[in-house]
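Blinded run. Sample ID left blank on purpose so nobody reads anything into the name before looking at the predicted structure. Input follows.
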Amino acid sequence: MGRPLPGYRVVLLDGAGESGDEGEIALPLDARPLGLMAGYQDDDPHAAGAMAGGHYHTGDVAQRDGDGYITYVGRADDVFKSSDYRISPFELESTLVEHPLVAEAAVVPSPDPLRLAVPKAFCVLRGGAPTTRETALELFRFIARRLPPYKRVRRLEFAELPKTISGKIRRVELRALEARRRAADERGAAEFWEQDFPELRPDRQPPAGDGD
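Blinded prediction complete.
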């Protein structure tokens, strides 16, 4: 995202409301920035939440490096932890759609007894590509070559994505679906887990770059 424009102060607030190098993007209101909305029309409770604690809260999470450059992580309600690592669905989805077979992807946390949650991707394929074990294996390998182990998608499901009338993916529905599935110990009709592929063991991985 770069650096803030002149005249704008941007802070990153953690869960305790303290400013740091990672957290929710917020604008201090002690010197109200030019162009900031006055509030939400006919929605005072929403406005009060957005302006709480002397800051305007954007609902977006970001990181700031030593040179002051801000990098987008994801929406605050979409980011989750896996083995205490912060996972950005945006980053994983962006990696998945680089594969020529993937038209759309949505990543949500899948409850896991060991890691608390692991990344799961719901994928829509292009051009009638088969929703088979072989396709899942190809995508798992594609991800493994591009992401560190703690960020990798561990579960894949080929399915249509629920959307709003404006076309925005409803991740809240996918999160709820995944929570129900794990509570009932069920899987989707076209769902694949990385742990079920012996070919993906570290000692059986192809060299980096192979097959790109």
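Unblinding after everyone has recorded impressions. The helical segments are 44-50, 89-96, 133-144, 171-183.
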